[in-house]
Amino acid sequence: MDRFREMTCFVAVVEAGSFVAASESLRVSKAAVSRAVVDLETRLGARLIQRTTRRLSITEAGRAYYGRCKQILAEVDEADGAVGEVTGHPTGTLRINAPFSFGIRHLAPLWGPFMARYPDVALEIDLSDRLVDVVDEGYDAVIRISRLRDSTLVYRRLATTRVVACATPDYLARAGTPASVESLAEHAVIGYAYAGEGDLWRFTTPDGERDVLTRPRLRANNGDTCLAAALAHQGIALQPDFMAGDDLAAGRLVDVLPACRGPELGIYAVYPSRKHLSVKVRVLVDFLAEAFAQPPWQTLS
Q1: What's the pLDDT tens digit per position in 122-146?
Q2: Domains of the chain, with CATH numbers?
């Protein structure tokens, strides 16, 4: 087996955490992946991965080799992409990170049409609500929903989303409707763990900026979990309209402070500034900008 294939299988095992998961990601048999790693260790004369019946762990030699392999494989992918620079035809693999809920609700339906339009581009989609490092973690593009402040990155705004304090009519009938921003402190609230300002909720009111320090009854690092708790009548959630819009439109949720406006966040495609914008990244960003030119969730403004 050639060295490139050995390195590809080794990196896949390290990143997937098992030979089975690596074989699934590479779409080859588990035996083929295992043989590639064994051949690699034999050729190098070093154990790269410790195997037990319960788990795999990477050795010190394996960690060093993994770092170099990642760099080499990324350079090979960039070399493939360079062909697209000359021909104007996008090729290669796009590594994309996006927030979990947004990725499932609004990006997942787009990947099929994107692949149909660009059949020579492969996609690796990673969903995570944590703030990833675009450069150090090797992503070609990241979708961020925030007030973007990092000037070291290049980005394009795809759309905006408005954050809304919302609850079910049943909860409001039981606990009462907040009369002001400050009165939210007296309510059961559902907090999002990755919110930029934590438990401090801020609104623009007719009298200016107001904020309140809330005391979440439930705090989760995933928006769907927060929304589900709100829909179960357990409190007031502060959620973006790309998630809560359908429930608000259907009356399952109610904007509890209709005279106040929650923060507006940008939805951005972000990519490293240290790299020239490749054809594959450019067509991705253009495709997403086209798809979100009229965001389906903007029914509240």
Answers
A1: 999 999 888 887 777 778 899 999 8
A2: 3-72 (1.10.10.10), 89-301 (3.40.190.290)
